[in-house]
Structures are given as structure tokens and as C-alpha cells.
Write a structure and sequence with these properties.
The structure is a homodimer. In chain A, 45% of the residues lie in helices and 17% in strands. By secondary structure, chain A is an alpha+beta fold. In chain A, strand 4 and strand 5 form a beta hairpin. Chain A binds a DNA duplex through helix 2 and helix 3.
Amino acid sequence: MELLLNERKIKILEAIITDYIATAEPIGSRTIAKKYNLGISPATIRNEMSDLEELGLIEQPHTSAGRVPSDKGYRMYVDNMMHSRDLTDEEINFIKNAISFNVGQIDYLMQQTAKALSMLTNYTTIVTEPTGSSLKLKHIQLVPIDSKSVVAVMITDDKAVKNKVLTAETVPTPDILNALSLDINAVVSGRTTDEMSKEKISSVLNKYPLYSSLITDVFKAVISLLQNSKDVHMYTSGMRNLLGFPEFSNAEKAQNIFKALEEKDLLITLLGDEKNVDKIQILIGGENNMQELKDCSIVRANYKVGSSSVGRIGIIGPTRMNYTRTVSVLSSIIGKMNSIMANITDDGGFDE
Amino acid sequence: MELLLNERKIKILEAIITDYIATAEPIGSRTIAKKYNLGISPATIRNEMSDLEELGLIEQPHTSAGRVPSDKGYRMYVDNMMHSRDLTDEEINFIKNAISFNVGQIDYLMQQTAKALSMLTNYTTIVTEPTGSSLKLKHIQLVPIDSKSVVAVMITDDKAVKNKVLTAETVPTPDILNALSLDINAVVSGRTTDEMSKEKISSVLNKYPLYSSLITDVFKAVISLLQNSKDVHMYTSGMRNLLGFPEFSNAEKAQNIFKALEEKDLLITLLGDEKNVDKIQILIGGENNMQELKDCSIVRANYKVGSSSVGRIGIIGPTRMNYTRTVSVLSSIIGKMNSIMANITDDGGFDE
DNA sequence: TGTTAGCACTCAACGAGTACGAGTGCTAAT
DNA sequence: ATTAGCACTCGTACTCGTTGAGTGCTAACA
């Protein structure tokens, strides 16, 4: 693809994209000649622009308007022309302060990450908890609530703490509940769902015939926690930022986007499910196949927890988003998260 | 106040408010005469409207436009002229289906309540967890996470389950942790913070001199959970609905409101702190003293949990909101919640 | 005395007409 | 190959008259 573009075309395309990202206004040949001194006249630029348009890299909203980058143009820019930029010390400190304290509370950490990202980029951000079929349970404890219900407190090996309230016809006494917790722990802790032995599960069920329905529910809760990415928690921040962009200032358009962003399933799809942790992915405009979000781009990446489970981070902005900066910020924050998560899982603790 | 208005003025004011709620357009004397057959001519209506304007109950956006209700006008309407309306069976069923299942998970219940309310009213809704200084702890259990941290699982007497991760220099063994949990339970469970004896707290601390810092943290967590309404969880829904109203279709205005609604402290203030459970309160326009929300009204109420702790529900819409319907829906949902909550706390369970 | 018809007046909204200017593509000169 | 020049396009902004919904006032009426 790049072979088709000579040095000059590249410079012109870059100028158009840079300018459009900054101003959201179509840009014409004269303006390019004035603002970016490429040493050529508007007429020459016009000829080149005509070629760029033929290649589908830029578009004209209407005759006698300037040119605007197309999705394909952004794609070219992102793939071949974007140069990364380091964050300032100030920004790095901002990130550190925002997400480095109180990391014991993993939900809080994620909320803070989402917030920091949206503040730094001025776009909308989504952060999900880690999931993955190789996620392991570290510890489970049943705690009585009342005569009809108990809560299963589950701690995964990335040290997220989860509750699931279970109802039972009769709830075991606290002592039995403790013993039961220990027996269940012996079966599930330190294992992925695949590694949990069916026989051991049955033997626990047989040991407590009175409470088999409760115990079944407990195992179900464990499996659903470890496997079911549908009810993964998500933390979003900075929705309102989108309202600040002229492309979404039309209330109806904005409403449609907001509606889409309220649908959890859609967001999960949007964040993707590739396990390749290290790469930042960019979806430009229509590349996400959601009609409502066709004027949005998504910059997304995974962060790593433990050996293999991953959480996802996504940044949603207008197609005309500042990719360079967004990628820099995201990559910096991913680095920070990975190191925090590595520290969290370092410690052996009490698992059997 | 009502004495100042004769029957006819009341009818006219009512017509203006009803119409404006429906159309968001200023309404003139001719239109009133045509649409609401009050048996009088536009000229007469004009005279009456002139009086209503003098009383500050309606306003003219500009000469030669129709009239629009003022905040004072809405206040008059809400206080004296609103007649309640029963929900349809369909709506009642909708509420029942939305919030009656899976009530074991109290956070889910609240999320569903917020969602149901925003769907029924088409406004933005906020629901907070119950708080109150007389909230009691039902049960607490410490669960090990790793060699440096434990999680305190706390169950309040409204059966909300809360986690707080605590770090410690050395974490007790599981056995000691269990014993410790029992001792702490003996001090805190079934009591408000005021009722917890300082001597008993000290005696627990003395019994486990090795873990005094951890235990201190546990008590701190308990007190903060029961008392600190600042970090109460809130569930909002239907933010985007506001974008549908012409008064907020201006993106900048909408952004300001969204910004305000992202501030938790402000929302807490907005929901108020009166303990009077039974009454639905209405704040019209500028009556909430927040500049950003001067074009919004808030309909709010408390729901009751157990004997005295309360949660709050608020509905935020344009000043031109449908008060009648909003009040009906809210009062119906409050009724439903109160009965659910009453059932939840009915059961004695395992507290000591 | 309260009600209403009539009338002059106001003013936002709308549409037609016009000027402007940013932008284009094409052609011919360099 | 580059560029100056030029005719052309078309959205934007502006003016200006028209329209119509609305008002307040006055005088007539029941």
C-alpha cells in the first residue's frame, strides 16, 4: 500500500489528517500550502489531493469544500505514518498518582484507571475486570446471612473479591459452613474450571447430603465466576466527553451513541477477545461493525493478570481522534497496570 | 396562596402547565381557548393570563410569544392542583417483574430499580443503598487473601454484603482468623456504632496483641461502613434520556448537566437527608441550589429498610416534567421496595 | 361589572435573494 | 513536472420583506 504513495503525498495526507484532528473542519489546498510549508503551490497540492481522493484516502463532503480523511486514510495513517510520542513527566506522575494507591481494592483500581484515562485523553473509556478460562480461584468462603441464605465470598488468583448470594432451604450452622468451605476449597482452589475433578466434586456432595442443592449452587457460582465473561464487571468513565465534540453535538446522534454505550453486550464485543496482550489495537470508524458507532474509533488493549487471564481497556472517541496521543497514554497506563498486577499476584498467601 | 386564584385562573394555569409539559412550546390565549374548552374567549383568557403573570406564576419568553409556567407556577401546581393517577396493570406488572426477582443480591436489586424507573418515566434516576446511623451489622467474617491482606466481609442487617480489603504486616492463620472473626462479631453484630462498647473493643485488641493494627482496621472499616454516607454506592440509569428533551438538546447545556451528575457528592446532596420516609418530595427548578441543574426538577423519596435506615431514590428530569406520572410511578415503586425490604429483614438468621 | 370583539402593535421564524469566499478542476504557460 | 490563472461550484452568512401567533388596549355589549 505504501508503495502507491510518494513522499509528497504522504506529507499531504499527514497534513490533512493532523489538521482535521485538530479542527474538525475540511481542509483545502490553499490552507495546506499556507500552514504546512511543503514548498509546493496549492495547485500542485490539488493535483496530489485528487490522486489521494481517487485512492479513497480522503473525501470531499461536497464540491467546493475541502477534503476530509476517510476511514481508509486514517487506517493508512495509523499503520504507516504515526510516530509515537512520549508522555510528559507530569502526565506520567498523574497516572502514577491516580492508580497506584489503594490497589488492594481491585474494583476501585479499575474505576480509577478508567477515570484517569478519560481525563488524560478527553474521550470515553471502558475497563473490564480480568477474565479468562485459565483464571483460577484462590479461596472460597461461605458466610451465613440468615436462615435462608449464605454468601459465597470468592477470591480469584488476581485477588479480586466477589460475592454471590445463594439461597438454601436450610442453611448449615456456622461450624458446618466452615468445614464445608474447607472441603470446597480443597476441590476448587488453585485450579481452573477444567482442572477441577468431577469425582472430588461428587465426594463433597456425598459428604453433605443435606445441603446438596446449596453445594451445587456454590460450584455453579464458581464456574460462572471463572468462565462467564457476560457478567464481567465494567467500569466506564467520561461518557460526557463525547458531547464536547462537534461531530456529536447533534443531540439525536449523541443519544444514539449513548444508547449503544449503555448496552453491556455490545461493549464486550467492542473490547474484543483476542488474547494477544502486548499489542494495542485500533478500530477505525466503520471497522467496528456497529452502525451506531460508525463515527467512532476504538483504541483497545489487554492488561495481563497472573499468567494468562486478561482484562481489557478501551478508549472510544470520534474517528477524528488523536491516535498518537491516545496510543501513548494507553500504552503507558497498560504498562503501569501490568506491573501493579504482577505485584498483586506475586504473593503466595494461603492457597492450598 | 390559593385564595388569590379563582376557579377560572386555576383552570387556565392548569391548561398552560399541562400543555407546556406535553409540547415544550409557549402557549397563547387562542390555543387555550381552542384546545381546552373553558367556555370563555381568548380575550378573557388574556386578561386572566395577565393577572397570572403579575402573580409570577407564568412568564413570557418574549413579547408576542405565548406564556410558559414559572418555577413558582409549577410549585403552585404541584402543591395544590396535581391529582394523582393510578398506574395501569401493565405498568404495575412491569415494576413487579423488574425488581421482584433475585432480590438476594441487593446491589442488583437497586440497579434494576433504577433501570425500571428510568424506563417508566423516561427521566434519569438515582438509587442509593440504605444508610443511616442506626444501621446495624449482622455479621462479619475475615477471609484471608494472601500473606499480606485479608478481606473483611460485612453483612448489614438489611443484608447488603460489603467487602473491604485490609492489609496487615502478618496475616493470622485461618484458624486464628476464624476465632478472631467470632470475637469481633460478639462486639459488633446486632449493634449500631453507638451501641458498640469501647471496653469490649479493647478486650479484643488485648486478646490478639500481634494483630492489633489489623483489628483496628477492621473496626474502622465497620464504623466507616455504617456511618460514612460519603462512599455509599449509587446506581444511576437513563442519563441519556435527558438528551431527548428539547431543553437539553444544546450539547453544551447537556454536557454541563452530565458533568454535574457525575459528581457523587452533589448527587448525595441532591437526594437530601431527611428521614421522613413516607413523603415524596419535589424540588422544582432553581429550588435545588445548583446552578447547573436550574432547569431540572427532582422528585425524590426514601425507602425504608428495617426499623430506621433508609435508602434514597431520585428522579431527575426537565423542570417541565410530568409530575403527576412521576410521582405515581415513584410512589408505586417505593411501595414495592418497602415490602421487599421488609421481607428481607424479617428473618432472624444467624446473628448472635 | 364582567366579557368579548376589534384593532394596532410586536417580534420570532421563515424564505427568497444576494454577496462572499473557500474550494475545486482544467488549461496553458513556464 | 510545476504552477499561475480562471471559470465554476456551492455552502454560509446576511439582508429584507412577509407571515402569523401572540399581546395589550379600548370600546361595545349583556
